[in-house]
Design goal:
Strand order of the largest sheet: 4-3-5-6
Number of domains: 2
CATH architecture of the largest domain: 3-Layer(aba) Sandwich
Order of helices and strands: HEEEHEHHEEH
Helix content: 40-55%
Radius of gyration: 25 Å
Number of strands: 6
Shape: globular
CATH class of the largest domain: Alpha Beta
CATH topology of the largest domain: Glutaredoxin
Distance between the termini: 58 Å
Structural class: alpha+beta
Number of helices: 5
CATH superfamily of the largest domain: Glutaredoxin
Strand content: 5-15%
């Protein structure tokens, strides 16, 4: 009985330090685990880095994970350019419900010849655009950005003209495309928006 008690006593410090070591390792791993979980929560379609229009600073689109995302290729000199106003109203009306509009100016259809600064000034001064806008981007063909290549692959349709729209669900599993003639405030478009914002964040 005495020997058993001595055995237990001599092993206790080692066990105690092993237990502390395990806790220490777990504490070190927590930030990594949290980071991995956060990365896993970002849909593949948003795992892209693009440049902000105003200052060309890199932006990770994963910051919009969990939101309903509307991606649109824009142009300053197009018959559909007034849709900037509709897009801004859509963004303002639904941003508190978890929707964000992301604009990507493009000269793929020869109607956006300006540089990023002039585009930014035009959007803000002419249409009061406050939704996120990004640097001039190729949206179709072999030169298309990785984001638009992925959107094209998922929906099996590339932008056919300026102000082509892609609507991405909160979990990124559903991506719909809408042609340029579909106004962002049309009944058809808003019906789909209402369906997606009604779904809770994953």
């Amino acid at each position: 009985m005495i020997q058993h008690m001595k055995y237990t006593h001599t092993r206790t410090p080692g066990f105690f330090f092993a237990w502390l070591s395990a806790l220490f390792v777990l504490a070190l791993c927590q930030p990594v685990l949290a980071q991995n979980n956060k990365a896993a929560a970002c849909p593949a379609v948003l795992q892209h880095t693009v440049e902000r229009l105003q200052d060309e600073k890199p932006q990770n689109l994963c910051q919009y994970a969990g939101k309903v995302v509307v991606v649109v290729n824009t142009a300053s000199f197009c018959g559909f350019t007034p849709q900037y106003k509709s897009l801004e109203e859509l963004h303002a009306r639904y941003k508190d419900k978890g929707l964000v509009v992301l604009g990507f100016p493009s000269n793929d259809f020869s109607q956006e010849p300006e540089n990023n600064k002039k585009i930014a000034d035009f959007c803000e001064n002419t249409y009061g655009v406050k939704f996120p806008m990004f640097s001039k981007t190729a949206v179709r063909g072999s030169d298309a950005s990785p984001l638009f290549k992925q959107l094209t692959q998922i929906t099996e349709t590339a932008p056919k003209w300026n102000f082509y729209k892609y609507m991405i669900s909160r979990d990124g599993k559903t991506v719909q495309s809408f042609n340029s003639t579909t106004d962002p405030l049309s009944k058809t478009f808003l019906a789909e928006v209402d369906k997606l914002v009604a779904v809770p964040s994953p």
